[in-house]
Amino acid sequence: MQTRVCRIIVLPGDGIGPEVMAEALRVLQVVERRFGVRFEFHEDLIGGACIDRYGVALRPETLERCRRAHAVLLGAVGGPRWDDPRAPVRPEQGLLTLRKGLGLFANLRPVQTYPWLQEASPLRPDVTRDVDFIVVRELTGGLYFGRPQRQWQNRRGRQAVDTLRYSEAEIRRVLRVAFELARQRRRRLTSVDKANVLASSRLWRAIAEEVARAYPDVELRHMLVDTCAMQLVRRPADFDVLVTENMFGDILTDEAAALTGSLGLLPSASLGRRRRDGTGLGLYEPVHGSAPDIAGRGVANPIGMILSAALMLRYSLGLPQAAEAVERAVAAVLAAGYRTPDIASTGTTVVDTTTMGERIAAALEESDGETADKVPRPSGPSGSR
Ligand code: NAD
Q: Is the CB of 263 under 6 A from ligand 1?
């Protein structure tokens, strides 16, 4: 049987980015062996590393290569060397160019707690038990992009305006991503808005109701953002999929991240248009930044990066069994007591970045994986989108 080839652009970036990326690639090499798929990795520069070499945070040819790939894996960008706010080129510009250039409008952040890491969470174990939800945040509209956005001065003093604008099409496409996701999970979708105050939220809610008609098997509930902020710390296990606009999502995802106790554990996916089989180009990166305070010391937690690679297997490459196997390998290594320093507690075995990656790769190697012939074969990136 012919082996499927997946083209993946690898952008390690700055700080701990290259350290955690190396471990994700190690795990993906095991996926190749276990699941009868072949990855073509193309490494390129982004962020500060790219500024140092080429004077820009992302080269146009890199963006073009990403467009033609099945998926993009990214470590992290930024660091004190490039932090001057007056600098004409900044590392984050690379990320923004990538998201915009690839048309990525839905940001997914899964949040899951592990029974073995209860001590890492600031919340009581009875609150964080069985937490397993995904936040879908609209990424390209709303307050952060609406115009006018400016500050001025008149006789009454300084004034400022931001604009929260959404079009029907922007709302509909991100809601569809969320409904599809809910369908693959526990079929419960919470749409978060502020419909009692904002016109844009009332449009959001109306469109959510319309889109829901195509998903009668998914239970939709609406929740005001202030109530949601409270429920996330009171009853986080009640959520399955949440979907919300850009700024609400920005704030709620950070709150949700705190439930697990360490930034180093959390993956993310940014998705654009999907093919009929649910796959499509995506950007996969851990939630954390470049962590300059620990870069080069070999202590970074690679789990957020490895779980981001698992999301890539699921949402871009159509390899859900492989994704689950990676997630199970991570859980098995945590259950066996291995910890990087950020999640260490008494009685656990503290390991460095490489050892954590090796342990997860070994757990995956030993797991009961699916065989290649059971793996579905989605169309390539040039398929119908
Ligand atoms: P950060 O996420 O890099 O670090 C915050 C804290 O968490 C630090 O103490 C760090 O040591 C720790 N941490 C983060 N990831 C970890 C991991 N994998 N293992 C163990 N500990 C980890 O956030 P910051 O310090 O605010 O930002 C540092 C740089 O990263 C800045 O230049 C910022 O602009 C950039 N940044 C980039 C991204 C991105 O690339 N998407 C996101 C956030 C911040």
A: yes
Q: CATH assignment of 122-260? A: 3.40.718.10
- 292 close to ligand 1 (CB < 6 Angstrom): yes
- Overall pTM > 0.85: yes
The answer to whether 170 touches 140, Cβ cutoff 8 Å, is: yes
**Angle formed at CA 320 by CA 316 and CA 324, multiple of 5 degrees:** 125
Q: What is the pLDDT of residues 122-175, one digit of tens each?
A: 899 999 999 999 999 999 999 988 999 999 999 999 999 999 999 999 999 999
Give the active site residue among 83, 226, 238, 277: 226
Structural domain 1-108+261-385, CATH architecture = 3-Layer(aba) Sandwich (3.40)
Structure tokens of 49? 């590393």
Backbone angles phi, psi at 313, to 5 degrees: -60, -40
- Specify burial of residue 231 (Cβ count, 10 A radius: 0-12, 13-18, 19+): middle
Annotation says 44 is catalytic = no
254 is catalytic: yes
Catalytic annotation present for 144: yes
Domain boundaries, the chain: 1-108+261-385, 122-260
| Active-site residue, from 83, 238, 254, 277 | 254
The tens digit of pLDDT for each residue in 68-105 reads 999 999 999 999 999 888 889 999 999 989 998 999 99
